[in-house]
Structures are given as structure tokens and as C-alpha cells.
Amino acid sequence: MDPLAQALADTIEHYRRTHPASERVFNEATQVLPGGNTRSVLFFAPFPPAMVRGEGCHLWDADGHRYLDALGEFTAGLYGHSEPAIRAAITEALADGLSLSSHTAREGALAREVQRRFPSMELLRFTNSGTEANLMALASATAHTGRRKVLVFKGGYHGGVLAFAGGGSPVNVPHDWIVARYNDLDDVHARVASHRAELAAILVEPMQGSGGCIPGEPEFLSGLRQLADDCGAPLIFDEVMTSRLSIGGRQALLGIRPDLTTLGKYFGGGLSFGAFGGRAEVMQRYDPRGSGALQHAGTFNNNVLTMAAGLAGLHQVLTAERLDALNARGEALRGRLNSWLAGQGVALQFTGLGSLMQLQTLAGPIHSADDLAASDDRARALVFFDLLAHGVFMARRGFMALSLPFDDGACDRFAQVLEQVVGARRAVLPARR
Known about the structure:
The chain is an alpha/beta fold. Helices cover 39% and strands 15% of the residues.
């Protein structure tokens, strides 16, 4: 066995030995859930830790281990664990009844706050997840244009049935997809050339999140805006992840106004949430007062707890100043880590923007999913399990999303542990060339 494979095997075996309670939880779940799992992204072999508690930016598992939480619930945990203002709002809402079977004042108030931050969402509607939001945005675009072809991008992820790693997934919904290379306008125009009159929508993340935290280059995203105008196809910005990069998302930073925007994650204050919205002429078709209105149902679209938690988070916690400070900390941390890694001569780097980042196991520029083909997942796994052993939790794929409680001290702690791990493993990690 080569040294990297042996090191990985050893650290996985250490993980197994030190997590017997988590393994029991997993084994019991396999009796009723396929692979003990009901959310694919959370699984990694041999089994994931069973978390039992969270506070601030820390987690505790069933085996009593305490972790610095650098994952932040895949961006949904922006507020950290047990934020007092959100806890109080949920408790207050519970006192008035859990399911009220009708409209409430909170849903309009939350929609106004979302619209204030995202002016391009002239009208909007709520869903239960970012996946649903993207499905409804595509349905809106196809209904508005009467067309079926949708331009998406290799490596893109817009939900469990809208995934384009490797070009697509067998469980994707059956739109007529055109899959182009991210950050490559020449490839986009070549693939769209014969279908311009059939294009129903362009669906794009301003930064590919699950695809590796690969930022969309401003010229590329501006080019998509121009293409959408030329073809008469709505441009949909999936800001489910990138909404946290500024108070108005990445569209505000870039000065690009999409026709439709999708949101999710932290806007529900840590509870299930999604939203889609945009140009009034597109969204007005959901007005039930109109003849032939489009239908959009969902028992929990306006559920009491999400509306209350979402409002508390946006009104009482998430100011522009706090969000800007968080993203500045993320930028500083990523720069610090990349500078140190380059000096160690290892082929490791962190890509991303602001408070979102991804550990990559290769050096050099990364513009699209194609550039990741040469990465070595064994090296990423080794770093991941070693970080776990030192009390730091990120996604198995190397993804990180910092939370508001993840302060300068937490950044220092993360950097120190990573330096310790990489320093100890430098001989078996891929070398920078």
C-alpha cells in the first residue's frame, strides 16, 4: 500500500475506534433507511458522526467529542447554533398555535424584508427548500416563455433533482437541458447557437457552491445577462448559497439584475425555507385573483415557525455590517491558509468567496468543474479525518461555510489545526509543481 493510502486507512480506523456511539446510531438507522441515510450529502464512509448538540460555532457528537463547526449546515447555519433572538421568536410563535390554516401577518413581513434586500425580486413566493425554489423558478420561466430548453452548467447544483456534476443525474427532472462549461462564454454560445429561439431559461449559480466554490467570473455572468436579453429567456440566479456574500447577494456586488432569483438556507432562521421571485410580469401569474392563475401550493410554505424565525434573524441579527464583517473574516482566513499552503509546497488550496470556501487538492487556477479532474480525493479525505481527530468539522468534500459566531479566535483555531495536520502529513500529500 502506498504511503498516502496507508495514512488514510490508519486515520479512518482511528475514527472508527473513537466513535462507537455514532457507529451504533448509524447501524440502527440502516434497518429502516437505505444506507442509514435520508440526506445523501451527509454520508461518508465508514459512517458519519451522530451530532447531539450545538452551541455558537461548536458541535458535540454522541461520543462526547466537541468540534469547531466550520461547516455551518452547508450555509444554512449562518446564525450559528441556538441564536437567542431566534429561539425567543420561535417560543413566542409556538404560544399562539403551530398550524393556523390561513394567512398570517408574518409571511408578508418576511417577504417585504427579503424584497428590501433583493430589489430584483419585485414579487416573490415561499417554498420549503432551495430545491423547490429552483423547480418553481424553472416552471415559471417555461410557463412564461412557452419553451422547454434550459441552459445549465457542468458542476452546477440546484437541488437533489437539479444536479449537474459530471453533466447530470439519473434522478434529475426532465427538462430539455443544455449543459455548458462554467466560466466559458465561447462554449455557451457554441452550445446555444442552434437553440436560441427555444431557450426557456438560463439557470446559474453566481458561484458554484457544491461544485467546488468556483466563483463565476464577472465577464461570464454579464455575458449570460446579455445572452438572456438576446434570446428572450429569463436569467435565473440561484443565490441559495451566494445570498450570504452581501446583504443583497452576489447580484448586488456585481450590479447584475437577474429576471428571477432563488433563495433558501439561512433565510428561515435555521428552519426549512425557500423562495423564488423576480420580475412582476412573470410572478404576477401566480396571483389567485386573476383568471387562469398558475397554481403553487405547499402546506408549509408559510409555516408559523419558519416565518417567525426568518423575521427574527433578518430584523434582529443579520445587519449589513455583521454580514460584511463575516465575509471579510472569510476572505482573510482563506488568504492566510492559501499563503501558508503555498509555502509548504503542497498541492492544496482553498477556493471560494467571502465566508464560503472549499479545500481543493491541486494547485493552479480553477475556472470550471473540468479543472478539478486531476484532484486527489484521498488527500482531501486524509485532511478531513485528521481535522476531525483534532476537533474541527467540515464537509467530507472539504466545503466550509463560516457562521456569525465563527470569530477571529475560531479562525485562528482552524488555521492552527490545519497547519498542524498538513505539517504532519506533508510527506504523503501531493506536492505543488
